[in-house]
Amino acid sequence: MTFQEGGNFGGGRVRKGGGGGKVAVGGGAVGLLALVIYMFTGVDLSGMTGGAAQDPGAQPSETVGACTVEQANTDRECRYSATLDSLDTFWGATIPAAGGQFSQPVAYSFTDAISTGCGNASSSTGPFYCPPDAAIYVDVSFFDQLEQLGAQDGPLAQQYVIAHEYGHHLQQITGVMDSADRQGSGADSDSVRVELQADCYAGMWAGNAATTVDPETGVAYLEPITQQQLQNALGAAAAVGDDNIQEQSAGGVNPDSWTHGSSEQRQRWFTTGYEQGSLAACDTFATDQL
């Protein structure tokens, strides 16, 4: 989605860090394999696949500064920061209106590697949410891997990833993370339900993003979604489906090992949030039809 002229992107929302030891694996099949293993098991094997696992990276000591509208539309870190502004405003109104207590997640942008409350992470792990930190971690170079997974990179594809991780924070503050059994796997497991709900929350935000107004400027953050942008977001959702990743990494599909949901499920639940736009519609724990 395109940020509108007149928006306010004052910066300071995203903390910057990392860049210590070269733990990250580059692109290509090895980097993709490390990402796949992390997504299925939570085990980071980047140190075993080419790079030496050294220092986990410098801790964040600065933030992404103020960005112009042009930078928010072209620079990945500025887009990350500006997208968080929109997410903060939307969910800061939506959660309290539903009777919940809202707090913003912390957000980090890192390069190569970083130390977190969930352990040391590298670029090959992809974007993730760490509950103990109540924080989103993104190395924006991950977006290059979307095309390796069969998606077309684009603004809304990147924003979908950020909005999905933000969805995990909503699950943390509403108690879903604590109540769900996230250790299991399978097409109808709680692990999959958690991920599909975060996809639905991302769709909710996207469906309302063009009418979410910056309270400081009175201007909507984003222009209406184009059909091409929507297809890019759906393509990103399909690219990170368990079946697509299994096909690319192993040449076969095993639903019993799924932890995130199939490409079709991830697209469908994003679309549910986008079209229906309610927390009730995103209750993946209340349905047998995942």
How are the elements arranged and paired?
Elements: E1 15-18, H1 28-41, E2 62-63, H2 69-74, H3 76-97, E3 106-111, E4 113-116, E5 119-122, E6 128-130, E7 135-138, H4 143-148, H5 155-173, H6 176-179, H7 190-208, H8 227-239, H9 242-250, H10 263-276
Parallel strand pairs: 1-3, 3-7
Antiparallel strand pairs: 1-2, 4-5, 6-7
Helix pairs in contact: 1-9, 3-5, 5-7, 5-8, 7-10, 8-10
Describe this structure in words.
The chain has ten helices and seven strands. It is of the alpha/beta class and 290 residues long. It has one domain. Helix 1 packs across helix 9, helix 3 (76-97) packs across helix 5 and helix 7 (190-208) crosses helix 10. The longest helix has 22 residues, at 76-97.
**Strand segment tally:** 7
| Low-pLDDT regions | 20-58
Order of helices and strands: EHEHHEEEEEHHHHHHH
- Largest sheet features: 5 strands, mixed
Pfam families: Zn_peptidase
Subcellular location: Membrane
Keywords: Membrane, Transmembrane, Transmembrane helix
Protein name: Neutral zinc metallopeptidase
